[in-house]
Structure to design on (314 residues):
């Protein structure tokens, strides 16, 4: 079964056109399918249009948030409701073409657990295209995942992979990276991209400032979530070392007969030492908490629900 998840917010002008387009192509890909629309607190008639469409088609499932919660929550809820072994996500603005769903299925049949769309000829503002390329380049450098367009909303996931994942807020943009770090096979296919013909974009240049904090969160989650002392220890130890060198230099300076009591450098050195020790012990406590969680009886056989390639009862 194929589940298609479509978050929608204030898309009353184009939602019927999207429905007509996906119904033209999805039944050709699979007779066993469902389309899950998540109305993300729309202020227009999007929900009313969706309800009227659902009355005509038993393959449609409609859910609605009472207020705007964001695309991350919409996708997370959609994943929890999906019944299909293969899950596809799409935006409702028709910039991505439902006719290309077969491309994703073909790449999945070749062995990929996650397939991302690559908007090679992207029809967006040039500054956003440049920022996106830089963003993808940074992800490749930092994490080793070579994708051209990780932020494309047109994606395929296996049910096994996505059900093992917990994410929140803006981290939905990094789902392929999170799954890549868990050992799943991530690939991409080139997709056509059209200019928006209905409604208006929900994202602007401010999206850059939202992505940067999430990128730093990802760096910590991917590299240090299981060993926080490596991060906090290095940072805290470095600060304490610099502070200690400053204090040692001032102590030596005092032995030579000079007064250091009113020097701002003395206070600065003490602050560095104290801050460094606090940061170090924060990491130490975090390490202890993770060690305790790994030692709990329920996690003994498969800690953190790591994906297993093979298991045996023998």
């Amino acid at each position: 079964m194929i589940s298609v998840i479509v978050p929608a917010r204030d898309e009353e002008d184009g939602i019927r056109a999207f429905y007509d387009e996906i119904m033209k192509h999805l039944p050709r890909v699979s007779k066993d399918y469902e389309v899950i629309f998540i109305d993300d607190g729309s202020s227009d008639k999007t929900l009313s249009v969706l309800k009227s469409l659902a009355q005509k088609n038993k393959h449609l499932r409609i859910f609605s948030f009472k207020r705007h919660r964001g695309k991350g929550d919409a996708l997370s809820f959609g994943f929890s409701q999906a019944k299909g072994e293969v899950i596809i996500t799409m935006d409702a603005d028709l910039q991505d073409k439902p006719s290309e769903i077969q491309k994703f299925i073909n790449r999945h049949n070749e062995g990929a657990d996650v397939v991302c769309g690559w908007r090679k000829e992207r029809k967006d503002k040039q500054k956003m295209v440049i920022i996106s390329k830089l963003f993808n380049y940074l992800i490749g450098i930092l994490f080793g995942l070579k994708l051209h367009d990780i932020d494309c909303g047109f994606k395929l996931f296996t049910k096994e992979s996505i059900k093992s994942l917990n994410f929140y807020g803006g981290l939905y943009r990094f789902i392929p990276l999170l799954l890549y770090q868990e050992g799943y096979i991530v690939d991409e296919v080139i997709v056509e991209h059209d200019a928006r013909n209905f409604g208006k974009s929900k994202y602007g240049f401010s999206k850059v400032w939202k992505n940067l904090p999430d990128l730093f969160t990802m760096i910590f989650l991917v590299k240090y979530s299981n060993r926080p002392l490596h991060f906090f220890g290095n940072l805290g130890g470095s600060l304490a070392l610099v502070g200690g060198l400053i204090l040692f230099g001032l102590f030596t300076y005092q032995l030579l007969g000079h007064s250091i009591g009113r020097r701002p450098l003395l206070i600065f050195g003490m602050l560095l030492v104290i801050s460094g020790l606090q940061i170090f012990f924060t990491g130490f406590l975090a390490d202890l908490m993770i060690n305790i969680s790994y030692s709990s009886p329920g996690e003994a056989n498969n800690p953190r629900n790591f994906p297993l390639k093979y298991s045996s009862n023998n």
